[in-house]
Amino acid sequence: MDLHEVDTPFAVIDHDRLVTNLERHHTRTQQQGVASRPHAKTHKIPELARLQMDHGARGVTLATLGEAEVFVDAGITDIFLAYPLWLTPNKARRLAALSPKATIAMGVDSVAGINQAALGLGRTSIEFMIEVDSGHHRSGIDPHDVVSLAEALAKHDLTFRGVFTYPGHSYDPHKKDSASVDEVKALTVATTALESAGYAVTERSGGSTPSLHSTQSFLTETRAGVYALGDAQQLELGTMTMDDLALSVVTTVVSARSHTVVVDAGSKIMGADKAPWASGHGRVLGHPDARLTAMSEHHATVVFPEDSAPVVCGDLLRVIPNHVCNAVNLVDSLAVAKGSTITMWWKVAARGKNS
């Protein structure tokens, strides 16, 4: 089926660009001396995760138990849940049910969370990673205070694997290059404290797509996720080029006034994310100077430079969402295309698995 034969709007992955991104990432991490554990919340698609593992990934990172259930059922057997989980009795039962089928690790950042996990899990093969704050100031303990968490894990006979952090401030254009330095500093402090107290630190996990190019070998693994598909944020941060962007939303021009047009794709398929530093609500593939200047639920306004060729009603455009993770979660399936030919559809199998 050709792209022009599908009713718009719909999301599509350029297969060749995807594979190129995966190959480049594998080469980069090999050169940096770190392993890859991509964050699959970006795409929520087991087929794509298997493709990432075919290109060197040791396993996947996920956000929720629901995502883990989908991926384990699909045969992905090495999973890190990179957030502190509060294990209610039901969540503990769900997590315990996964442990015989896969190697599972989960994040913790408090003694209270560890005590709750021990209460629900008892003796378990699940391993634990202590999260430290490296400057993003979301979850994560002060890296100087990690020993008390290792002691709590040991008290409950729970297996400690290592430490991790998320340098989310790498999404600030002014902090992008320093974020990887911050994460190494935080992980170094935490590792030194733990090893001085007699705890072996097997893993030091970090990374984000904006900080990939400056990832340092002190990390044992990087959890970048957006690198596979790309989005307008990466374009504007300068971490990916227009030629790297593998996911777009195919949309039809439904109204045209000179160099300003309206397309039939809005926030309900592209997401509404717009960072304070972003130049618009998205970008247009192949038109680097065009900007999405306004967005409603089912439509977006696109402005082209006045010296560009005219765009008329009925034309197809491929727009790039600002944040690919949210855009993927808004569709049931993604077309996979080579050139203008759709070769398959991938179900977004973990869509909506928020708990």
Write down the CATH class of the largest domain. Alpha Beta
Beta strand count = 17
Distance between the termini: 36 Å
What CATH architecture of the largest domain would you give? Answer: Alpha-Beta Barrel
The CATH superfamily label of the largest domain reads: Alanine racemase
**Count of alpha/pi helices:** 10
Query: Which structural class matches the secondary elements?
Result: alpha/beta
Instruction: Provide the low-confidence segments as ranges.
Output: none
Query: What value does the average pLDDT take?
Result: 96
Q: Note the main sheet.
A: 9 strands, mixed
Rough outline: elongated
The string of secondary-structure elements, in order, is EHEHEHEHEHEHEHEEHEEHEEEEHEE
The amount of beta strand, in percent, is 15-25%
CATH topology-level fold name of the largest domain = TIM Barrel
User: Helix fraction?
Assistant: 25-40%
